[in-house]
Design brief:
Helix content is 55%, strand content 8%. By secondary structure, it is of the alpha/beta class. The chain has four domains: 50 residues, no CATH class; 225 residues, Spore Coat Polysaccharide Biosynthesis Protein SpsA, Chain A (Alpha-Beta Complex); 114 residues; 138 residues, Serine Threonine Protein Phosphatase 5, Tetratricopeptide repeat, CATH 1.25.40. Helix 19 packs antiparallel against helix 20. The chain is elongated, with a radius of gyration of 31 Å. The termini are far apart. The relative contact order is 0.05. InterPro entries: Nucleotide-diphossugar_trans.
């Protein structure tokens, strides 16, 4: 046997088998000294191979408290020693007794993630605020205390709601994101189509704050702001951002919704693309199921949590159970301190519908949107209708709008328009004087569907929607002191098109009003302004145009000549 064949055998066989009969025969032709040399060479090669291989990734079961009863998870997490490491992230979350059923699983998973990458988790398990602030403001107090007490080696704070989990144990995507934005003080995901009491610019449930005086001043300002006695931190941050408090817009980086958070459908990507799953607005039973499974996978050493199957199954179980449910149902974390049981049942159905629609199951989505709307249409006429919050009615509006949009995309325009009309009627019947935020949303939805009707050449059906939208906006102007001039002008512009053939005089008057407002609020180069001027110039006729209007008409014609390619 050749020397190299013997070496090959030595490399392939484990060391303990070298003394076996086969290995002894393979080495018979070699002297004892040569065998010893080869064994030493093989040991060296094995050592080099181990150095070349990446170390095995491990999830620390003790960091997730995998070996204690579920009810003791939060206590186990609190007893762990503080890690060390320069520039590390301190994750701050709150898990009061009201949310412990699911918050303890999420906290255990997030603590395992933190220890995996050398970070730290702080869990505030205290009672909800009893000092006049809204219950949801407790996390701001916890974040403030963490900022004041943090050691020098903490570089960032991650404010994380108790209904969110970090899903990727293979790569620290949060630190990677921080490195991509070296000038940022705040990293936060945008909230497209979300709202609490106000339309949301960002989802404040997951936020990164750089450690330093600027972010501490921000959190101090929020903690001491009177708005937290009547509203939530997400709305307060939106208001401060819009007011550009201490150049907040300059220091805030808005990320895509799923870069560091979730959209309305909580799980839409694998952990490598969506590192945090945030089940905002979901029923508590769904949160318990998903986070318990996340905890199980973490304790099993899984490095990329696969939760979408559990999520969809939990949504379906929750929705199907709600069809005949009589026991209490809860969604913690809402503005109306607790939601009514039947409102929760409807929201369960709508959450499932949204997920099914996202994954292409239009038939299933249509069924569950409809199931939720059946009950919602009874709410405004209930003897005890005051038990329904504005948030309940907003969810009904969003669900009806989603279903109408989905049906319209399938080509069933008549069904879509009928449902849109029902949705608008439901919204208007629910719009009590105190629900001014809902009134604003009703107006926006009416304008959207009126525009859709116009595009379908159904001007007569669009007209009442435009008129109702204008009425709602005038109520908002009178009762909420909101700046709705531009929205009113757009509604007037749409109504003008709807009545163009039936009442050209009213259409002309409406367009004149719209053009005045557009000129005040929009840049001179605005396409929207140009189109309104073109319609007005056409309606007036050349004999009635003033010199200024004639020049506007000429300018509009010139604009169209250059903007629209000529057809050969």
């Amino acid at each position: 046997m050749s020397t190299w064949l013997a070496v090959l055998l030595l490399l392939l066989l484990p060391a303990e088998t070298l003394a076996s009969e086969t290995s002894c025969q393979a080495a018979e032709a070699l002297s004892p000294g040569r065998v010893a040399e080869l064994e030493a060479e093989v040991a060296g090669l094995r050592a080099e191979l181990r150095e070349c291989q990446a170390p095995a990734l491990q999830v620390d079961g003790s960091a997730a408290c995998c070996f204690v009863p579920e009810t003791e998870l939060l206590g186990c997490l609190a007893a762990q020693a503080t890690p060390e490491g320069s520039g590390r992230i301190m994750i701050v979350t709150a898990a009061s007794p009201e949310v412990a059923t699911y918050g303890r699983f999420a906290a255990a998973v997030n603590n395992a993630w933190a220890r995996r990458f050398g970070h730290e988790l702080v869990v505030d398990t205290g009672a909800l605020p009893s000092d006049g602030r809204k219950p949801h403001s407790g996390i701001i107090g916890a974040l403030r205390r963490a900022m004041l007490a943090a050691s020098d080696d903490v570089g960032w704070f991650l404010r994380l709601d108790c209904d969110a989990v970090l899903s990727n144990f293979e790569e620290d995507l949060i630190s990677k994101m921080i490195s991509q934005h070296p000038e940022a003080e705040i990293l936060i995901s945008r909230a497209e189509g979300q709202s609490v009491q106000l339309p949301s610019l960002f989802n404040f449930g997951v936020v990164l704050f750089r450690k330093g005086p600027y972010t501490l001043r921000l959190i101090e300002e929020m903690w001491n702001h009177e708005y937290l006695t009547r509203g939530v931190d997400q709305d307060l941050f939106t208001m401060m951002y819009q007011a550009n408090w201490e150049n907040l817009q300059q220091f805030t980086v808005g990320l895509q919704p799923t870069e560091m958070n979730s959209d309305g459908v909580a799980i839409t990507g694998r952990p490598a693309a969506q590192p945090i799953y945030h089940l905002w607005g979901h029923p508590d039973d769904v949160r318990v199921s998903v986070f318990r499974e996340a905890f199980r996978q973490t304790c099993a050493g899984k490095l990329s949590l696969e939760l979408n199957g559990t999520y969809l199954s939990a949504l379906e179980t929750s929705a199907r159970g709600s069809l005949g449910e009589t026991q209490a149902a809860t969604i913690s974390g809402y503005v109306g301190d607790s939601l009514r049981n039947d409102a929760v049942q409807a929201i369960r159905a709508w959450k499932l519908a949204g997920a099914l629609d996202y994954w292409g199951n239009r038939a299933g989505a249509e069924f569950w949107w409809g199931e939720g709307l059946k009950g919602a249409e009874l709410w405004p006429d209930c003897p005890d209708k005051d038990r329904y919050t504005m948030w309940d009615h907003l969810q009904a509006l969003y669900a009806g709008g989603s279903l109408a949009t989905s049906i319209n995309q399938l080509g069933r325009q008549a069904d879509a328009h009928e449902l849109a009309a029902r949705t608008v009627d439901l919204c208007n019947r629910a719009s009590q004087p105190k629900f001014l935020r809902l009134r604003e949303e009703c107006s926006e939805y009416q304008r959207i569907w009126a525009r859709t009707l116009l595009e379908s050449l159904r001007a007569a059906e669009a007209e009442p929607h435009w008129r109702a939208a204008l009425g709602n906006l005038e109520d908002l102007r009178a009762n909420w002191n909101r700046q709705v001039d531009l929205e009113s002008a757009r509604a007037a512009d749409g109504l003008a098109l709807a009545v163009l053939h039936s009442n050209s005089g009213e259409a002309t008057e409406l367009l004149q009003q719209a053009v005045v407002v557009f000129k005040e609020h929009l840049p001179a180069t605005s396409v929207e302004l140009a189109l309104a001027q073109a319609k007005l110039a056409t309606l007036l006729g050349s004999a009635q145009r003033s010199e200024e209007q004639q020049s506007q008409a000429d300018a509009v014609f010139a604009w169209f000549t250059h903007a629209i390619p000529r057809v050969p």
